[in-house]
Design the sequence.
């Protein structure tokens, strides 16, 4: 889960927004190529998640979350010039076999040199094929 303080960055929740159970939002929608991993989600109260200021209805919120996720991914992949698939999976910590396999499939289609990937190419793939 990314470390992004919604209320600090986007303003306090109204009572309506703060209401309801906590839900996991996929920052890059699965329909846009998003996959499950440590940096792919954020917990939001249901009222905010589904509300007018939430990421599904508000472009500014959606953009802020995507930019925060991208920033964290670049920070997570800043140590080395390139990463192989095992290093990528170690960093991303996919929760289950299905997520792990989806990441592997996406990385197979990502630019690499003998199985070594540059951070920018990894992050672009994880962001759904484009940088924000
Ligand atoms: Zn959502």
Sequence:
């Amino acid at each position: 889960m990314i470390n992004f303080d919604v209320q600090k960055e986007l303003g306090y929740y109204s009572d309506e927004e703060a209401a309801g159970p906590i839900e996991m939002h996929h920052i890059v929608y699965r329909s846009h190529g998003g996959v499950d991993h440590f940096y792919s989600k954020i917990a939001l109260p249901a009222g905010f998640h589904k509300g007018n200021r939430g990421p599904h209805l508000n472009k500014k919120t959606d953009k802020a979350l995507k930019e925060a996720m991208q920033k964290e991914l670049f920070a997570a992949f800043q140590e080395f010039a390139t990463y192989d698939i095992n290093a990528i999976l170690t960093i991303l910590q996919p929760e289950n076999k299905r997520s792990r396999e989806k990441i592997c499939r996406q990385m197979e289609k990502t630019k690499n040199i003998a199985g070594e990937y540059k951070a920018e190419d990894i992050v672009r793939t994880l962001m759904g094929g484009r940088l924000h």
The two ends are 18 Å apart (CA to CA).
